[in-house]
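Re: the request from the purification team.
They wanted to know what the chain is likely to look like in 3D before they choose a buffer screen. I agreed to run a prediction and write the result into the notebook, where they can find it.
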Amino acid sequence: MAKDSSFDIVSKVDMPEVTNAIQQAQKELAQRFDFKNSKSSIKLENEKIVLISDDDFKMSNVVDILESKLVKRGVSLRSLEYGKIQPAAGDTVRQDVTLVQGIAQEKSKLINKVLKDNKIKVVSSIQGEEIRVSGKNKDDLQAAIALLRKEDFGIELQFINFR
């Protein structure tokens, strides 16, 4: 009897890369002429990035700098969830950017439904914030991965533990 093969679907953010990108963005903010005498800053607090700037226009520049550094370090922008720009202390504006980790229950159900509807011979089960997909044939598993890569679930998916 052949042993079932499986893989896990997860949505994780590489936190060391996020930290490096934020440090590079802070360095660029400090060096750029258009941010001289500006109160702009980027901080990482737990799973949240806090952006502070003088006004909405400068805030959009801060966001551009942050996003460019994250992309260079291979962090998907789909992992970012932007909050509203709010007034903050000292004539500044503040925006919280949440790092989305894990696959929410609704998304997990949607992924399972897509796999079932396409009649690929795999079994998927939700395990907390990840999904385990197993099947007898590795080709079926690769077909499932190809199918899920084509679909847009609004989050970044990684496929790990392929065995």
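For the purification team: Residues 5-12+103-160 form a domain with the Alpha-Beta Plaits fold (CATH 3.30.70.860).
Please add any questions underneath this entry.
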